[in-house]
Amino acid sequence: xxRNPDAVAVEHGGPTSYRALADLAxxxxxxLRAHGxxxxxxxxxxxxxxxxxxxxxxxxxxxxxxxxxxxxxxAARHVRRIVENCEARLVLTTDPKxxxxxxxxxxxxxxxxxVPHEPVPPVPITAxxxxxxxxxxxxxxxPKGIVMSxxxxxxxxxxxxxxxxxxxxxxxxxxxxxTPLTFDVSLLEIFATFASGGTLLLPDESHRRDPALLLDxxxxxxxxxxxxxxxxxxxVADAAKARVGEHLPPLRQLLTGGEQLIVTDQLRTWxxxxxxxxxxxxxxPSETHVVTSHILDGDPASWPALPPIGKAVSGxxxxxxGENGEPVATGETGELHISGPCLADGYLGxxxxxxxxxxxxxxxxxxxxxxxDQVTDLGDGTLQYVGRIDGQIKIRGAVVxxxxxxxxxxxxxxxxTCAVVARERMPGQKHLVxxxxxxxxxxxxxxxxxxxxxxxxxxxxxxxxxLSEWSVPDTFVFLESLPLGSSGKINRxxxxxxxxxxxxxxxxxxTRAETPAETRLIRIWSRLLNLDDVGTRDRFFEIGGDSVLLxxxxxxxxxxxxxxxxxADLIELATIQAIASRLSGGDxxxxxxxxxxxxxxxxxxxxxxxRQRRAGNRDQQEQ
Length: 623
Prior knowledge:
By secondary structure, this protein is of the alpha/beta class.
């Protein structure tokens, strides 16, 4: 901020200079101090992606305090556990539900410019002070807070600044702030950009959900760097495959991580049409932040389908060890142990868990974090990710422990025992399935051996109120008993595949197709959701749909009907009946087009967007 205070720090609806951002942070700091904030205290932050969110982070640090990001839309009980566990002095939010849910004390944002404040020098911060606390699900479903120091975080920021500079040829970055604040990459996006003197670009939520709109936003704002989780990376690559020239953002650095990167033909095409851009595959648990990096550059045709996670970055020392902690030979698989100044301090208020994961062996290595990840050294220090060693899995980029889900599920009085496993709905796309033996055998519906329910069941609500969204199964299969192996343990391999038909109780909203458009949409939904009994009034997210499938749904509707449909439209309409009605020009309940002028206007807008997109594609192909 001091180097060039008039440079643009943030773009969101308009430019904001570093000087103006500092002023807003000072106003926020005065508000927080007026509510009793003191150095060392913790502040829950639940502010949507906006200028006030950025200012709040700076203000909390300037007060010598610690930000604790809270999950957006999280269940009240889950959020309350976090607030109580970290002993937050304040919760800064724009959402009135925090006060109504009894999560107090609450401070409202954004902040009025009329708030009087005297300039207060920032509280001095040392490397050992806490920079932030991020919460993930623990082994029993209880949130665990990862305590990261300023020294550890500053080292990661320094690495990212140098990494970005190497790809930008002397230009300052224009970084899209894509990830949610509860994901550690978000803080790297923000503060590495500011440390570089660059500009942070804040997309609206509608842009984050829709790959085509995100590409449009990136092109308009001349974005040069973005981090995309693998799922969104593939969706954006698919949307970018028909674009060239000014219709594509001038990216220099495309970062990704969180799961095994798969290089698709669409990604190769996008990068081939974006000369000078590199793909940077990064890896690191939240307990260490980024510890490896691998750059894909040159001809995309030469890139491997499954790239490695790369070599150690500065500040990280990596070892691969066997079951007894012994080093493994090059080319063999073992658990990745991480040491160095990049390590978090541990888990807040959980000394036993900290001791289990952060080892101190008295050697020169010092503290070591057991990652639980299996890797292989390819021979030159480049690591290939293999998988988890502890049965944990990754759902939408987040690590999920099935045993944690099982522990919470068995707390429900209707559950005698259960097993939670991951299934692939389609190649590379995992979702959770819960197999439940109910305490009351009458819960085995329809007299069948097993049934399946999707969506808003009692058990689904029970879990959603206690766990993060990605940890909640979208499918529940009820069994008379779980299959056991000879040792008496659950034979998970013998658990049946979920049926393609749902139970009678779960089909209350089902109705038959009455129009050709509904028939075509049912066919698409059935294929995506792997169900045979989709009804026109079923709601997409209540019968197994998720954000990943929503992107696929949008693509298939565009291909089937030749009309451009936004992700936001599909979220709003939710059912086949409503979508078909609007596509056909009727009202949202299936009436004729003449009954609803607004639906007719929206249908025209659908078709206009489709014509514009196809015309734009033809123009690009002719250039």
